């Protein structure tokens, strides 16, 4: 995952009295918290530290699970720490042998941590009793695919907590006002961009230029739709010449045209995520790529009549091998329990609490985002943005995949792909040169014996 310093405007969480009431009906694990395989119970007198990534989802959502843990173990000193630069903040602590007991991982190299056994196998957690659903195991409460996600070589080291989708955002009232129809193919997108530029003073696109991965995602999706699933498999498996595929070069050509033809909001390549997203919400650009956290991250900046709407990324042409409805989505995020934490059993128990229905419902209420627990959003009033994401997920059906695995398995390759994308959009390299550079980075990863390899 890209390390991003996202800003969040926090919303109010559920009232403290509600937390106390929910805690009273929760069933503690006690001696069943042998999730780490030690056969020991949680030591309720031990301190507990949860490290939260204070980004798009903020930290307000953590109040409920931490309060529930305190109710269960009143003698424990429960501490919340948070930040946005996990490499700088937590890598030294892993080296020193004193990492937090539970981490919301956005920025650490999960594949390397797993390969080095720095994080615990949390698979046994799936067979523990669900925190607030009597008669059910944790796995029984999760949406399809969640139990299988976050595995390396078959071992579950990461627990997703959000169920999201990525795509392109626009304001429906703006689109309706101008009579613009969202295009399904890239040539149609460029034609619409030309019309927007010619007839209005609104920029067709903007993006989070300081974090180029935001634009890499849709560009890869456009290529995927053109070439079909085999392209992703070849890229993820570091196959020779995978990045030289004509579909990737064509997608790079198409997206570079946004810059070459002046279809980007001026200066987009130098904008942070917050700047670009603010300008978009203010109506200065029509389209912006982002994940499901956009609404929560914008907070009060977004006008009430913005009508935030997510749609799939355009394909390349009518000859595409994958349907327009194809999206990246499903279980996301990664909660990990460090193996050398001072209280890993406590971290595992807090994770079990987080996966409770009441905590996941609270997450949806606070962050406006869907979670991995069945029925957690039932009864929660959803915004137009959230409804549009649900519609995208439903339309995708089986045409949805979590992400390009190379972005998860090989952090150095991910970082290099960001550099290459920045160079492409700054027009420092041609699309063909971009393709050659990415292939060079992939080959270096494939040949490096110090990097553990995975296969799709």
Automatic annotation (TrEMBL):
The lineage of its organism: Bacteria, Bacillati, Actinomycetota, Actinomycetes, Propionibacteriales. Pfam families: SBP_bac_1 (PF01547). Residues 1-26 form the signal peptide. It comes from Kribbella hippodromi. This is N-acetylglucosamine/diacetylchitobiose ABC transporter substrate-binding protein. Its main location: other. Residues 435-456 are annotated as: Disordered. It comes from the Bacteria. PANTHER family: ARABINOSE-BINDING PROTEIN-RELATED, SN-GLYCEROL-3-PHOSPHATE-BINDING PERIPLASMIC PROTEIN UGPB. Keywords: Signal, Transport. The keyword Signal applies. The keyword Signal applies. It is found in: Cell envelope. Belongs to the bacterial solute-binding protein 1 family.
């Amino acid at each position: 995952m890209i390390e991003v310093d996202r800003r969040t405007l926090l919303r109010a969480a559920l009232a403290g009295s509600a937390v106390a009431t929910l805690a009273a009906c929760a069933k503690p694990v006690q001696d069943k918290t042998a999730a780490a395989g030690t056969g020991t119970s949680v030591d309720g007198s031990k301190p507990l530290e949860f490290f939260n990534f204070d980004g798009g989802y903020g930290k307000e959502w953590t109040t409920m699970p931490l309060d529930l843990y305190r109710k269960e173990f009143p003698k424990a000193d429960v501490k919340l720490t948070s930040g946005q630069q996990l490499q700088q903040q937590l890598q030294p602590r892993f080296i020193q042998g004193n990492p937090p007991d539970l981490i919301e991982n956005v920025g650490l190299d999960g594949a390397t941590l797993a390969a080095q056994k720095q994080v615990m196998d949390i698979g046994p957690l799936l067979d523990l009793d669900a925190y607030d659903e009597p008669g059910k195991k944790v796995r029984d409460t999760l949406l399809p695919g969640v139990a299988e996600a976050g595995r390396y070589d078959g071992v579950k080291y990461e627990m997703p907590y959000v169920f999201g989708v990525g795509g392109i955002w626009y304001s429906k009232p703006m689109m309706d006002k101008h009579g613009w129809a969202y295009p399904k193919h890239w040539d149609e997108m460029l034609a619409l961009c030309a019309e927007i530029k010619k007839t209005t003073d609104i920029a067709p696109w903007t993006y989070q230029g300081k974090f180029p991965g935001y634009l890499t995602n849709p560009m890869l999706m456009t290529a995927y739709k053109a070439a079909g699933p085999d392209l992703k498999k070849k890229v993820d498996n570091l196959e020779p010449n995978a990045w030289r595929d004509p579909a990737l070069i064509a997608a790079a050509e198409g997206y570079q045209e946004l810059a070459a033809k002046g279809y980007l909001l001026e200066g987009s390549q130098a904008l942070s995520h917050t700047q670009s997203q603010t300008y978009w919400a203010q109506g200065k650009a029509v389209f912006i790529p982002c994940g499901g956290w956009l609404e929560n991250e914008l907070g009060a900046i977004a006008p009430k009549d913005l009508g935030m709407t997510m749609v799939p990324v355009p394909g390349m042409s009518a000859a595409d091998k994958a349907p327009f409805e194809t999206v990246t989505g499903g279980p996301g995020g990664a909660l990990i329990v460090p193996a050398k934490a001072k209280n890993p059993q406590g971290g595992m128990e807090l994770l079990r609490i987080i996966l409770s229905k009441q905590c996941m419902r609270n997450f949806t209420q606070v962050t406006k985002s869907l979670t991995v627990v069945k029925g957690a959003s039932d009864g929660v009033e959803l915004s137009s943005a959230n409804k549009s994401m649900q519609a995208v997920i439903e339309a995708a059906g089986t045409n949805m995949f979590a992400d390009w695995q190379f972005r998860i398995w090989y952090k150095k390759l991910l970082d290099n792909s960001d550099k290459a994308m920045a160079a492409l959009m700054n027009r420092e390299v041609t699309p063909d040169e971009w393709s050659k550079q990415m292939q060079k980075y992939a080959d270096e990863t494939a040949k490096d014996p110090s990097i553990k390899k995975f296969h799709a």
